[in-house]
Design brief:
- The chain has about 350 residues and is an alpha/beta fold.
- The chain folds into two domains: about 120 residues, no CATH class; about 130 residues, NAD(P)-binding Rossmann-like Domain (Rossmann fold).
- The chain is built from twelve helices and 16 strands.
- The chain has a six-stranded parallel β-sheet with strand order 10-9-8-11-12-13, sandwiched between helices. A five-stranded mixed β-sheet has the order 2-3-1-4-7, sandwiched between helices. A three-stranded antiparallel β-sheet has the order 15-14-16.
- Helix 4 crosses helix 5, helix 6 packs across helix 10 and helix 6 packs across helix 11.
- It binds NADPH dihydro-nicotinamide-adenine-dinucleotide phosphate (NDP).
Length: about 350
């Protein structure tokens, strides 16, 4: 059995969903009430792969909402309680979705193996970052040529280059895609220097310089909502792959030649018959999902019950190949640019 731990995109969405599900007492509560609400297993689902294999899974809502991010103890408790529930339900492999994997890593929850009388078994959980990184690279390779970008001559900026997903994307760009130049962007200097050394190339850039020089920008950092970007300084054409969470780049960029693509999203080859993606603002919630969620399904399809993506900067090209091949075999494809936009370009 696979599991997905997720959360609503906002407090208001969470309240709406709770009402729909009949949890009226929680729905009517304020944020303090929600801070004490336990995780809920809200949906069971059966999924049949393109190979014909059937697996079962469950969606656990952590009852976390982004408005709780500044409440350290609450955020920590929400993630650990949801993991405890997944383990108690006997789920083999569970993906930590949305902010939950970031909370796990940033708040160093590895130190919290004991939750009440449950000892968490890390091998039952995955961040899903290997599949997310592979999907973002696919989205780049498939969509850039469609809007007239020749990747062999292209400058590709990776914003969040030193992160878990960002560093994997850089490794792939450098060893597999073969772009003209990788522009590395993050706030701290030393990890950038270390990454540049590991890659044997790439140039370290400020965000401003990278944006004005890049043909493709891969965003794998959660950027502040207040970030202002002058679209007139971007290259034309420019492909923006919005791999961060929340996905809010299309609000920031507009103009001729700028194409924003939701990064790290996959589409299954047929409807799944679940309702869990409706609140995640997917265009086709019956078959689209975050690539990190899909990783838990893939590991279950492959009988690979291990914490496949874990810790920071451990994603290898071999692991990306493994999960990428499984993704294609079981019927997932990376979400691409809207075909109407491409038609207008060509
Ligand atoms: P990490 O915390 O490992 O990495 C974050 C990276 O972003 C670091 O390089 C960090 O470096 C950089 N960064 C953070 N803030 C800024 C900033 N203001 N300007 C420039 N760089 C910045 O995160 P992950 O790799 O695990 O995840 C990256 C993003 O991908 C997250 O937003 C996450 O939510 C999202 N994600 C999306 C998924 C999907 O859509 N399917 C699935 C999983 C994750 P520094 O601190 O030095 O700036």
């Amino acid at each position: 059995m696979f599991g997905l731990i997720g959360h609503s995109t906002s407090f208001n969405d969470a309240k709406r969903k709770a009402l729909e599900l009949g949890y009226d007492h929680i729905a009517e509560g304020d944020l303090d009430v929600w801070c004490t609400a336990p995780p809920q297993l809200v949906e069971h689902v059966k999924v049949v792969s393109a190979t014909g294999k059937t697996i079962e899974g469950a969606y656990i809502d952590s009852c976390f909402v982004p408005e709780m991010l500044s409440r350290f103890k609450t955020a920590r408790r929400k993630v650990l309680n949801a993991m405890e529930l997944a383990q108690k339900k006997g789920i083999n492999i569970t993906a930590l979705g949305g902010f939950t994997s970031i909370i796990f890593e940033n708040f160093n929850l590895l130190q919290n193996k004991q939750v009440r009388n449950t000892t968490l078994q890390w091998e039952r959980f995955t961040t899903g970052n290997t599949h997310t990184a592979w999907v973002i690279c696919q989205q780049l390779e498939i969509n850039a040529p469609k809007i007239g970008i020749d990747l062999k001559k292209a400058r590709v900026a990776v914003v969040g280059a030193t992160g878990d997903i960002g560093s994997a994307v850089c490794r792939w760009l450098s060893n597999r895609t073969g772009v003209a130049e990788i522009l590395l962007v993050a706030r701290q200097k030393q990890p950038l220097i270390d990454l540049q050394k590991e890659l044997g190339g790439g140039s370290i850039n400020t965000l401003e310089d990278a944006l004005s020089n890049a043909d493709v920008v891969i965003w794998v950092a959660s950027m502040p909502r207040t970030l202002e970007i002058d679209s007139s300084k971007l290259q034309n054409p420019c492909l923006m792959i919005d791999g961060g969470y929340p996905k809010n780049l299309d609000e920031k960029f507009s103009g001729n030649g700028i194409h924003v693509l939701k990064g790290g999203i996959v589409e299954f080859f047929k409807d799944i018959g679940w309702s869990m993606m409706e609140l995640a603002e997917m265009e086709k919630p019956q078959r689209e999902m975050f690539a990190c969620f899909a990783e838990a399904m893939l590991l279950e399809f492959e009988n690979c019950h291990t914490n496949f993506s874990w810790g920071r900067n451990n994603i290898t090209l071999e692991k990306m190949d493994f999960i990428g091949n499984a993704s294609l075999r079981h019927g997932f494809s990376a979400v691409g640019l809207n075909p109407n936009i491409q038609a207008a370009v060509v």
